[in-house]
Amino acid sequence: MNYRIINIVSDGMVEPYLTQLIGLGAAFYNETTLKDKGLDANAFSLLETIKLLINNDFGILILAIGDNNEVVGTIAGTISPWLLCREQSVCQEAWWYVAKDHRGSGVEHWLLEQFESTAKAAGAQFCIMGTHDNPRERVLLRYYARNGYTSLEHLLIKKV
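and the corresponding structure tokens:
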């Protein structure tokens, strides 16, 4: 299979792929334990988040497009000044998902490379990646380590 990596920078670029992005968002949600933690998901919120990312200077949205113009993966995040030193910028990954039947094809690496280079071009000195409590977490942590990432923090959640 051949893949194209597209850095989405406008509404017009993302519009043909919105329905597929909603489907990937649902697949991501269903593979995680987010529902078990009390976190919900809906198409409207995902659409609004996509608009926010692409209509501001701080957002990154990248798609991997396979044969037949099919979205097979996506990565997104935001760039902001570092909390403790405003002279440094960080890019925080918001989501990164590759459809199951395309994992291991290299597309996940191409998405990560494009994400990092886009963040760097936008002024970020660091990228922060995360994982969710799921069966693939250990695999992802090893993948991140092989790509130069080190542990930063552990997030916990509690409904209040």
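(Above: one complete record from the training split.) The chain has five helices and five strands.
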